[in-house]
Fold these 2 entries.
Entry 1:
Amino acid sequence: MVHKRSSVWFWIAVAAIPLLLVALPYSATFRNYAAQANEWAEGIMNAHPVMGAAVFFLFAALSAMLAFTSSVVLVPAANLVWGKLFTFLLLWGGWVAGAVVAFEIGKVARPLLVRLGYQEKLNKYQQFVSRRMKFWTTVLFCIAVPSEIPGYVLGGLHYPFLKFLGAIAIAECLYALGIVIAGQSLVAAKPLPFVVIIAVLIVVVISARFLLRTLKKSKSTNRRKANAPR
């Protein structure tokens, strides 16, 4: 019963998020707040370009390690100051760097993560992965789960580092490209491209999660058949 209720709330959220995304960019209040925030961030970045780039990169790295931080809100201002290409490189590079740090922490300090309250999340997502997991499945996992999860989980499993690096680079490249383009659309007061890009990213995440669950069920079924008495 609890599982069914959680599934219902999940699909309600899935339906509500696109509606919210459609409504917000067309709201005058939202656009005013966004414009004020962008002007404030843009002024700081213009006044301190090197420090601003370093802070933006650091926030991107932290957002790949901690669920409560994010550099996404700074993307529109960063686009105006540095352009889309440099903003993309900072965002993507920061996310990948943070994921690598999380991977190393997961590899050597799992007890610390448990003490910090990550045990439930680690156990939840670890059922979808293994040390011998194929590369494309790892890419799927990195796309499907929150950004701070892959490094800790795969590091804890001692997954091959280079395969992890390639998978997380592909996944984060996809998100960074979408977020930078969406941020540019928001700055240019073009709500429709913003809504379309964010909606596409949501569909990608949902599809990746569906495929992961399908693969898990398929493996469980094959394992039961292999262990069944003949």
Entry 2:
Amino acid sequence: MRHGKKFNHLGRKKGHREAMLSNMAASLLTHKRIFTTTAKAKALRVYVEPLITKSKDNTTHSRRVVFGYLQSKDAVNELFTTIAPKVADRPGGYTRILKTHNRLGDNADMCMMELVDFNEAMLEAKSSKVKAKSGSKRTRRGKKTDKPVEAAVATETASAEDATSVVEDAVVVEETPTSKDKSTEKAPKKEAKAEVADKKPAAKKKAPAKKAAPKKEDKK
């Protein structure tokens, strides 16, 4: 049984499979993009990426090792002269697999396999997105920093205006009673005093009348 065995033989013997992967790798390095089945592309990725890593060391020994796999002088020359300098800063992941459609004959999953650093359209799109994001962040930050300052200034001016209006209202309220005639304030006081004076004599008159009656009875 094949429990835990993930190696895909691709329905071929070892010699046939290695020859096929060698030809596919040479085509990928020469043309930078090929169309194949998804299963073959995944097997090719494991085959060709170590060779690209090996090409970063441009020595005679590295060239001979890579040539042992590719068996193509043109592909080896293209790998060491064009691809290796462009991929020097990338730590792996040199290829990309993009699924396209299913093949009509056997309904196999088809895909496009390409070198990541040679798709100029996607690189330009990424650079434009990065620029747009960086610009939007700067403007948003600028707006965010400006808004609190404007809000603080607006609140300060509004509070100052409110304070001045309150002070003016207070001054007006304090001045209005003094500006009016003082007779209006004194009139209620005089009326109150007159009422108190009227009430006090009435109480005094009633008290002596009650006291006088018992005195006359004692004299008798």
